[in-house]
């Protein structure tokens, strides 16, 4: 079974930075794309950033210029560098990946989520 393990969340002051990591492990044949979503209390889960197998990236308007998504293919890991953090960025951040397992087909996997809190 494929698993996504997230790390790097925590408490940070406004204007500060955090770097989130998400490592995929298990019976992985290939990874189509990886991304980050977030969900604040009382709100819908929303896409923050995504990166395809070709390196194409997509960002939510609210984080453009502040967040950067990248990945290390050899390590099956995706990163989210978050700079100039605002209180509005406070949410649970979820890693997401489209993965093809050996002997199977494509499935979308989710991490368990990591809390990011931006507060003075």
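Sequence proposed for the structure above (120 residues):
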């Amino acid at each position: 079974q494929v698993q996504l393990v997230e790390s790097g969340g925590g408490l940070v002051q406004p204007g500060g930075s955090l770097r989130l990591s998400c490592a995929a492990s298990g019976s992985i044949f290939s990874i189509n794309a990886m991304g980050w979503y977030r969900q604040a209390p009382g709100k819908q889960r929303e896409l923050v950033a995504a990166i395809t197998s070709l390196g194409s990236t997509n960002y939510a308007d609210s984080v453009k210029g502040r967040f950067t998504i990248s990945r290390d293919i050899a390590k099956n890991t995706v990163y989210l560098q978050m700079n100039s953090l605002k209180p509005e960025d406070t949410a649970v951040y979820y890693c997401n990946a489209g993965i093809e397992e050996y002997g199977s087909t494509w499935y979308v996997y989710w991490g368990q989520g990591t809390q990011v809190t931006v507060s003075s």
